[in-house]
Automatic annotation (TrEMBL):
Annotated ranges, domain Restriction system protein Mrr-like N-terminal: 6-91
Pfam families the UniProt entry points to: Mrr_cat, Mrr_N
InterPro entries for this protein: Mrr-like_N_dom, Restrct_endonuc_IV_Mrr, tRNA_endonuc-like_dom_sf, Type_IV_Methyl-Rstrct_Enzyme
Biological classification of the source: Bacteria, Bacillati, Bacillota, Bacilli, Bacillales
Protein name: Winged helix-turn-helix domain-containing protein
GO MF terms held by the record: DNA binding; restriction endodeoxyribonuclease activity
Domain called Restriction endonuclease type IV Mrr: residue spans: 162-239
Domain of life: Bacteria
Length: 244
């Protein structure tokens, strides 16, 4: 069957959380794919960019819209639960949840930068005095909305990066370095060779397009500063490579 649009995923997504338990995003992917009877082919279909599976992308947007509307809450890395507002919505037994339905919530209007949302509500703890609001030009109001949406997007991106697998994160770092101008193409410039959980080299990238020298990299997610033991382990890995 055709993969449903992201709005069609919203109500079933919320119903999964309706048991008040915590659910992982990976679990929700599977349940929604089964609910809509997606075929094996559907589950392997990528976006035109080739970066993400189409059905997961649409479920991801459904999750974002529900979260921005206050219907669900993220309680951990890739872990979600329903809110009281979400339970109230389910108790109303709506036929569907879509963008138009979510526009009843001020938080969603702020996320959308909706022109009907009051300017003094564009962001938490950033209420604008009414006299200042009257002085704002359309460009300034638009800029305020843009910065708020950009901040929300950055938050979502950070959550996504933190919830990805170690293997994906290592590849992401190599891709980032290539995008910064190191090496040439993905085929000849970036080589991810690390394995999850090791202390070795996660990638090799050419210093420039000529490939006269190479840079060895290690990509790990750290909550704080990188300690001396980790640096020493990486140095030891380099020493072992140069000895071979």
């Amino acid at each position: 069957m055709t993969i449903p649009d992201y709005q069609s995923f919203m109500l079933p997504f919320l119903k999964i959380l309706g048991d008040r338990n915590e659910h992982t995003l990976q679990e929700i992917y599977i349940k929604l794919a089964d609910y809509f009877k997606l075929t094996e082919s559907d589950r392997k279909e990528y976006l035109p960019s080739g970066k993400q599976l189409k059905y997961k992308n649409r479920i991801g947007w459904a999750r974002t819209y529900l979260k921005k509307s206050g219907l669900l809450d993220q309680v951990g890395r890739g872990i979600f639960t329903i809110t009281e507002r979400g339970l109230n919505v389910l108790n109303e037994n709506p036929e569907k949840i879509d963008v138009k339905f979510l526009e009843q919530f001020n938080e969603f209007l702020k996320f959308q930068g909706n022109k009907n949302s009051n300017t003094d509500q564009i962001g938490e703890n950033k209420k604008l005095p009414s006299n200042l609001e009257l002085d704002l030009s359309p460009e300034e109001i638009l800029d305020t909305s843009y910065r708020e949406i950009r901040r929300d997007l950055m938050d979502e991106l950070l959550h996504t990066v933190k919830s990805c697998s170690p293997e994906f994160f290592e590849k992401l770092v190599v891709d980032l370095l290539i995008a910064m101008g190191y090496g040439g193409t993905h085929a000849d410039a970036g080589q991810a060779i690390g394995k999850s959980g090791d202390d070795g080299i996660d990638g090799i990238i050419k210093e420039d397009k000529l490939g006269l020298d190479v840079i060895y990299i290690q990509a790990k997610r750290w909550e704080g500063s990188v300690g001396r033991p980790a640096v020493q382990a990486f140095a030891g890995s380099l020493e072992r490579i140069f000895r071979t």
